[in-house]
Each structure stands twice: as C-alpha cells, then as structure tokens.
C-alpha cells in the first residue's frame, strides 16, 4: 500500500518533516518514504491510500500501563496514593477474575489504539488475571504489547502500608519461575508483537535476595524489567533503610541496565542521574498520574540534560483518567516549563521524541519502531486536520503536541495492518468491548464490597 499526500513527521535521525509525503508499505515494513510525486512515479501499480490534509507521525508508545485498570476508571478520584491503592484499587484488583481482566485489557487496548498508541508496556499483570488472556487481547487487536508479568515475594519487614495489599494480589517466589515460563511460551508470538517482561514489585515490598535473583535470571535470558520507583517522597525513606541511595541500591542488585524501565522517578536526585546514564537505564514519565495523585514532579529537564533516556506513559485509567498520549505529551512539556519557570525546557519536539523514538529505545525496539524510516515496521498514525482547534497549522510538531487529542486520530497502522480507519477500530468491536468492560467493572466492584462506596460525592436525584 502506498500512503500519499501526507505531512510526515519522520522522527528519523535528521528529524525530517516531509510535506506532500508518501510511505510505501509492503507487508509489515516500510519499504520507501519520500515525496508523493516521486513515489507515485516509482510505484505506479501500487494501491494508494490518500492522506491529504493529514499529519502522519510514528505510532505512539506508552512506556507505563496497567491495562487491567480501565474498568476502574473514576473509582478512586481525589485521594492520596496510599488510600487510592490500599482502600480501592488493590481491593478491586484482588477480586478480579480472568474473564473480567480480559474485558479490561480489551477496553484499554481499544482506547489506546483509537488514540494512536500502537505499543504499550504493561507493568504488573498478576497471576490471577490469566496471562494467556492478556496475550489473546494483544493478538486479536493488532497492538504491540510488552507484557510485564508480576514477579515478587513477600518481605516480612516491608513498610506498613504495603502490608495492606489485598490477599488476592499477594504472590510468592514461584512468580519468577512462572514469568520465565510465560516468556518461553509467548515472547515473540503474534508476528513478534508480543514481548514478555518481568514486572517487578517495588523494593521494600519484596526482599533484596529475591530482587537479586530476578535480575540475575533476567540478565542470563535477556529479559527486560520494569519497576515502579520513587513515585512518592516516602519511597526514599525505604531506600535509606538499606544505607545507600535509591539508585545505588538498584545498581547493587543488578537492576540498572539498558533492559530496565523505572517508572515515575519523581524523587530521584540529581547526584544519581549519572549512574542512570552510565548504565543506560530508562525512565517512564507519567505526568498526568503524578499530578492527579499529588506524587510530585519527575525532574525530566535534568534527566534529559544528563543524557538519560526518558519515555512517557499514561499509567492506569483510575489515576489519569484517560489513555491519551497526546495529553501526556502536552503535560510533559507544560508542567516542566511552569515548575522550572523556563518556557524553553521540554520543547514540543522533545515531548514527541519521548512518546516515539525515546519510548522505542526504552523498550529495546528502536531498531524496529519509533520513527518512520525504510526498513522499520510500518507503525504510524494519521491525524486529519478537520476541526477548528487544529488550524492554522504552521508547525506540524507544535500542532501534534499542543493542539491534538486522541479524538483527532483518523488512521492507525500497526505492523502494516490498518487497525483504525476513519476513526473506527477494524480489529475488535468497540461497542461490544465497551459493554463487556462496563459489566466487568460493575461485577468486580460488587464482589469487592465497594458498591455503596463508589458513588458520586454530590447528591443524585433519580426519576
């Protein structure tokens, strides 16, 4: 297929923007890219897809997601993180059944695809959810998924609030063996769209001995790891109990490497950033989640200046409440300008890089996705300029980062396959997915005993 007449933001090494551009896709790969006039002349027999008045960007990459949480959207608003986890989210997640987890994953994936997210990193898929259900949701939808299977033990000396984890989520050392088995079974399936990761629980909640064992197994097998880290200020106190800085501790267990993505990192200190750079460790910045839960501000400008790779993520629906990476890009640019009193930090270009090529690098996939180049997989998004908030368009990058939202996405191609056309999913039925997600959420809330708690704060008058 020859996609023609688009404004293409390539995010290639030269950061070219091609006006009246075209992309030739053969099977799952970009075979040529350039001016429409040139490619139409070179490939006169190719079928065409007209993208006039569209901006095309690489598929967006969310480096932090909890896809099971979509059915809990709006269930824990305006509360602190510990209450959010202990009193609501952990309780519901500890009561979810595999079919409900599957419905939740489908709902999350539908929202992501419709909003231009073509790849995501799931951080903590629990045993009780059914890993095969998550793989199935990825396979049938057409999205790319790096799937973090929970690995944990139980630390008897863990911080008090972590002892409140719902019993349905508490797993033991056998999770490491189970995660390796899932990696052996599923890594690379669905035309290599599925990658299996270790989803590590946060230090303090698990033992140092277990974390060392996990990191050793990951290194031997080249399995990637993702882990929440320094999300809140009290997290630093946990690391201080180890008599070393947080990043020194992470390095001591073998975690820091180019196979690791640390999530949030709101309270990382400048003196630790060189260690992150030296080890090639990646960061997943989640601005909306950090703002809504009052967690703090990841020092993104300092991290970027230090040469640390920073991607971007939406986190889960209950702490966001949308899986809209355009919103995340915009927030990532804006909040750091305000916090640093400097309008020049985190430019629109840097925000787009975080959501594309930086994210691909964090996932170890920058040789395959993250930019539009010959030889890379055909993952891209078309945004049609059809509404008042999108025009005039003097700078396509600024238009994408500062003026676009998920609802503006018109076309999504993953692995060469059209998965969203004219703003509608082609692989899964949106209406059915929504209906099943709503039913699953209601069932879990009822089973969790929270039906009388999760209600509007203002009085509701019913007829």
TrEMBL record:
Q: InterPro entries in the record, alphabetically?
A: Amidohydro-rel, Metal-dep_hydrolase_composite, Metal_Hydrolase, MTA/SAH_deaminase
Top-rank lineage group of the source organism = Eukaryota
What keywords were assigned to this record?
A: Hydrolase, Metal-binding, Zinc
Q: Which GO terms describe its molecular function?
A: deaminase activity; hydrolase activity, acting on carbon-nitrogen (but not peptide) bonds, in cyclic amidines; metal ion binding
CDD domains reported for this sequence: ATZ_TRZ_like
Q: Which residues cross the membrane?
A: none
List the Gene3D superfamilies.
Metal-dependent hydrolases (3.20.20.140), Urease, subunit C, domain 1 (2.30.40.10)
Q: Give residue ranges for domain Amidohydrolase-related.
A: 55-419
Q: Which Pfam families match?
A: Amidohydro_1
Which PANTHER family does the protein's record reference?
AMIDOHYDROLASE-RELATED DOMAIN-CONTAINING PROTEIN, AMINOHYDROLASE SSNA-RELATED
Q: What is the protein's given name?
A: Probable atrazine chlorohydrolase/guanine deaminase
């Amino acid at each position: 297929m020859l996609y023609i007449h688009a404004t293409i933001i390539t995010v290639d090494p030269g950061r070219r923007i091609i006006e009246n551009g075209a992309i030739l896709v053969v099977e799952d790969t970009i075979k040529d890219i350039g001016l429409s006039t040139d490619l139409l002349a070179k490939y006169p027999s190719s079928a065409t897809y007209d993208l006039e008045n569209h901006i095309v960007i690489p598929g967006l990459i969310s480096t932090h997601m909890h896809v099971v949480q979509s059915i809990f959207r709006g269930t824990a608003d305006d509360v602190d993180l510990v209450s959010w986890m202990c009193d609501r989210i952990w309780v519901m997640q500890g009561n979810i059944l595999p079919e409900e987890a599957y419905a939740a994953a489908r709902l999350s994936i539908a929202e992501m695809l419709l909003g231009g997210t073509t790849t995501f990193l799931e951080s903590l898929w629990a045993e009780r959810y059914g890993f095969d259900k998550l793989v199935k949701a990825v396979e049938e939808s057409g999205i790319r998924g790096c799937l973090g299977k929970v690995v944990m033990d139980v630390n008897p000396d863990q911080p008090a609030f972590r002892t409140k984890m719902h019993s349905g989520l508490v797993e033991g050392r056998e999770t490491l063996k189970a995660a390796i088995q899932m990696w052996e079974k599923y890594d690379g399936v669905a035309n290599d769209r599925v990658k299996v990761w270790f989803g590590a629980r946060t230090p303090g909640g698990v033992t140092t001995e277990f974390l060392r064992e996990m990191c050793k197994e990951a290194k031997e097998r080249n399995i990637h790891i993702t882990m929440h880290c320094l999300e809140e200020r009290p997290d630093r106190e946990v690391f201080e109990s180890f008599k070393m800085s947080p990043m020194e501790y992470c390095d001591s267990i073998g975690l820091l490497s180019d196979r690791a993505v640390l999530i949030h990192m709101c309270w990382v200190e400048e003196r630790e950033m060189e260690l992150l750079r030296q080890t090639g460790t990646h960061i997943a910045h989640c601005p909306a989640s950090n703002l809504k839960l009052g967690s703090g501000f990841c020092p993104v400008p300092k991290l970027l200046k230090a040469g640390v790779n920073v991607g971007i993520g939406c986190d889960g629906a209950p702490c966001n409440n949308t899986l809209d990476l355009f919103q995340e890009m915009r927030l990532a640019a804006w909040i750091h300008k305000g916090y640093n009193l400097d309008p020049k930090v985190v430019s629109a270009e840097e925000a787009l890089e975080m959501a594309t090529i930086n994210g691909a690098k964090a996932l170890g996939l920058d040789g395959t996705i993250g930019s539009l180049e010959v030889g890379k997989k055909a993952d891209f998004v078309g945004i049609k300029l059809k509404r008042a908030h999108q025009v005039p368009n003097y700078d396509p990058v600024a238009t994408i980062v500062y003026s676009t939202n998920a609802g503006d996405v018109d076309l999504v191609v993953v692995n060469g396959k059209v998965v969203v056309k004219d703003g509608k999913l082609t692989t899964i039925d949106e209406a059915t997915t929504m209906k099943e997600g709503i039913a699953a959420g209601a069932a879990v809330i009822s089973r969790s005993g929270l039906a009388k708690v999760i209600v509007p704060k203002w009085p509701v008058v019913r007829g």
